[in-house]
Amino acid sequence: MVAPRVYQAMTQPLVGHLDPFFFQTAEEVRTLLGYVFSTANTFNMAVSGTGTSGMEAAIANFVEPGTKVALLTNGFFADRIGEMARRHGGTVVRLARDWGTPYDYDEVREFIRRERPQVVGFVQAETSTGMFNQAKPICDAAGEVDALVIADCVTSLGGMPVLVDENGIDIAYSCSQKGLGCPPGLAPITVGARALERRKQRKTPVDCFYVDLELLDAYYTGRKYHHTASATMLYALREGLAIVAEEGLEARWERHRKNHEAFVAGVEALGMKMLVPEGHRLWTLNTPCLPAGVDDARVRGYLLEKYSMETAGGFGPLAGKILRIGTMGYSSTAENVALILEALKDALAKAS
C-alpha cells in the first residue's frame, strides 16, 4: 500500500527533468537515501526503472568481460543476478543452497577463498522465499580477497536493517514500492568509495548506456542531460523517504518485526508452518506453507474475490507450496495482520 502523503506528493505540479526544483528534490533524495541505507556514502541516487534496473546498474557497472563473480544463491532473484552477470561477460561461479535454506557461512568463506572472485553477489532479502541472508559474514569473507560486494536489498530497505557501512556492503540497490511505501518505478542505489575507485579501473566501457552510473551522476549532480527522469516519481520517493526519517529507522524496524511475528503466530495457530527457519525470516514478506491438499490458486482467488486481498504464490520449486504475503511499509500494521489472518482462516476452510 502507498501512504496517502505519497499520493499527495505526486499531485505537485510537474516540472521538467532539467528544472532547478527537480534537482533540488534529487539532492534531498540523495541525502535521505544515505540515512535509509545507513551509510555515509555520498554516491546515492534513484535509477529510473524498477528494482531490476537497480540490479542491472550494479552488475553493468562492476562486471565486465572476464570479471569473476561469486554468486551466493538460495532463491530466484540471486539466480537473476547471475544471469545478468553472465550476459555482461562475467565468469559466474555459484554456491547454491535449496530455496529457503540458510547459508552455511563457513562454507561461504571457504568458497570465496577458493574462487578468489573480483565481485561477490547475494540477495539480502530474497523475495521468492522470505529469506533474510546475513550480510556481515559474506562481506567479511569478500574483504579477505579484496572482492566487491553487491547486495540486493529490494525487500529489506525501509523494513529491516540493511546497514551498508556496518556490514561492509560496497554496492546496494533496492526499489521504491516495497519497504519505502511508494509506487514502483525507481531503484535506489548506493555505491561506496572503494567501488567507485574500482570502477575507474575498468578496461572496457559500461555496455549499457541507460544505467551507466558515471553518466547518471553527471546528470543528477552536474545537471548534464542523460534521460527524461520522472519528477512525479521523484516527488513520491522523496516523501516516502521523509516518512521513514520521521518515524526513525529503529522504530520502523521494530514495527515490522512485531507485525511479522504476530502474523507468524497467527498462521501457526491456523496449522500452517513457515518455509524459512526462525531467525532467518524476512519481517517484510512472509512465506507460510500451504497444508497438504490445499490448492494455492483457490486460496488466492478466494482472498481476491471476497476480500479484495491480493496475495502471491510461490514459483520455481515452491510453486503451489507456499503463499507470499507482505507486511511491509505502509501496509505493516496490526490491523492489516488481523485482517489477513481472519481472511486466510476463511479461505483455507473453503479450499480444504
Task: Tell me what you see in this structure.
- The protein is an alpha/beta fold and 352 residues long.
- Helix content is 44%, strand content 14%.
- The chain has two domains: 4-247, Type I PLP-dependent aspartate aminotransferase-like (Major domain) (Aspartate Aminotransferase, domain 2, 3-Layer(aba) Sandwich); 249-351, Aspartate Aminotransferase, domain 1.
- It has 13 helices and twelve strands.
- Strand 5 and strand 6 form a beta hairpin.
- The protein starts with a helix and ends with a helix.
Derived from helix and strand composition plus strand pairing, the structural class reads: alpha/beta
Tell how many strands the DSSP assignment holds: 12
Q: State the order of secondary-structure elements, H for helix, E for strand.
A: HHEHEHEHEEEHEHEEHHHHEHEEH
Largest sheet: 7 strands, mixed
Helix and strand layout, with pairings?
Blueprint (H helix, E strand, L loop, with lengths): L3 H6 L10 H18 L5 E6 L2 H12 L5 E6 L2 H12 L3 E6 L8 H11 L3 E5 L1 E2 L4 E2 L3 H9 L3 E5 L11 H4 L3 E3 L12 E6 L1 H8 L12 H8 L10 H17 L1 H21 L15 E2 L9 H12 L4 E2 L9 E4 L7 H18 L1
Parallel strand pairs: 2-3, 2-4, 4-7, 7-8
Antiparallel strand pairs: 1-9, 5-6, 8-9, 10-12, 11-12
Helix pairs in contact: 2-10, 5-6, 11-13, 12-13
